[in-house]
Amino acid sequence: MMSYRLLDVAQMREADRLTISAGTPGFTLMERAGTGVAEIAQAMLPERGRVVILCGPGNNGGDGFVAGRLLAEAGYRVELGLLGPRDEFAGDAGAAAARYHGSVAALESVDPAGADLVVDALFGTGLTRDLEGAVAACVERVARSGVPVLAVDIPSGLDGDSGAIRGVALPATRTVTFAARKPGHLLLPGRDLCGPVTVVDIGIPESTLAGFTPALFANEPALWRDSMPRLEANTHKYKRGHALVLSGEMHRTGAARLAARGALRVGAGLVTLASPRAALAVNAAQLTAIMLTPCDSPEELGTLLEDRRISCIALGPGCGVGDATRAMVKAAARAGRGLVLDADALTSFAGEAYTLGMIATAARECVITPHEGEMRKLFESAEGVLDAPNRWQAALRAAEVARAVVICKGGDTIIAAPDGRAALLAETTPDLATAGSGDVLTGLVAGLIAQNMPAFEAACAAVWLHAQVGIACGPGLIAEDLSEALPGVLRGL
Q1: Which of 190, 212, 234 is where one domain is finished?
Q2: Is pTM, for the whole model, over 0.70?
Q3: Which of 114, 119, 184, 470 has CB 3.0 to 4.6 Å from 160, enough for a Cys bridge?
Q4: How far apart are CA 136 and CA 194, in angstroms?
Q5: Do residues 201 and 245 both lie within one domain?
Q6: Statement to judge: residues 182 and 234 lie in one domain
Q7: Among residues 61, 172, 166, which one has the least CA distance to residue 121?
Q8: Alpha-carbon distance 178 to 175, whole Å?
């Protein structure tokens, strides 16, 4: 199984259906799921510990009944609380309930106080409404108790596709899910409520999982490691790519230098900063390994790009908003190289995402890196983006409109490609919320594309490296730290 594959709620439901249609009984899948829950519960319990299992009326509750039976047979003290009448259970869940011979109490009467573990099998990823009434009261009671919680599939109250809280949600100490993680495990606030997530293989074939569109992934090295640039014995700087970064005016040069430093640190053999003449002295005072060249107009940029060794262009940070930046974007795209657009390059096309998409098609490949505010401005008139059901679907639609790989920056950064691939960042740190951090990310993307790494994989790798460097630096980091700490993270790969 590809550990980095994700399934949305509808895809998981269809994967179950296809597996059952191919000959695996649904009850067999439920037995395997419940067995996985029981095994993880045992690892969290003391010998002969007391475990409270909360079961809902669907298949998630059926998994809970299987786990309860197995834990009781293993000598644990099991108390099972059920939402709704037991005799209303049907299908595979009903069969699982019939095989459980312990006592069953109404959910309202369950008291978690003094338990060693609560197994949350109330609702899985298919929750479609807010929790309220007796269920919400039970969730709040368990949360207040301080007893460790093992969530089955996803903590009850979390939306499996968006990670949003539906009314209230039960924070989990650990979560066990089946076949693949779901978007709600990685998207905020869901990520903070799941604890470590374990995926149990219940027998759904990899060929089934691989057949879904959109193709969703966790942004982890296994996704893109094989595409990372490799150095050979005869490598020289010109083989490692040449990134060109456009600087802003004299009073706004720092952002471009941060991007250029990121491109150099991530492996580009050469990096040149194209600077307005009025800012040359300011930039020259700050640069050593990064080269410097004057550039004041789209025409001059076009002349610079006659050098075919320049393989990627990054622009936007500190460039200013307006017609001049728009003209530079058009000139950069016409050169047919890799193109990374951020900050002012995006805001200069506010409300004109389709126009930017038409321009981007001239580039060899294009990546745009909007944060939430830039997303709203750029895609305000693009149908299906800002009103998408969740952030990953918004990102996919944005990529389609912009005809570019989109990095939707945030605490749960999403990378989406026009071909229907999307990757969700699984681990990051809020310490990255500091001025200039995004400029370094732009440089990392550009540096990898300059080395001929495909745009989607380059974007994923850059986002992951950026997050890991932030984690390594920790509290107190500033943007200048990121490029300097990058070699340690690269060595870890």
Answers
A1: 212
A2: yes
A3: 184
A4: 18
A5: no
A6: no
A7: 61
A8: 10
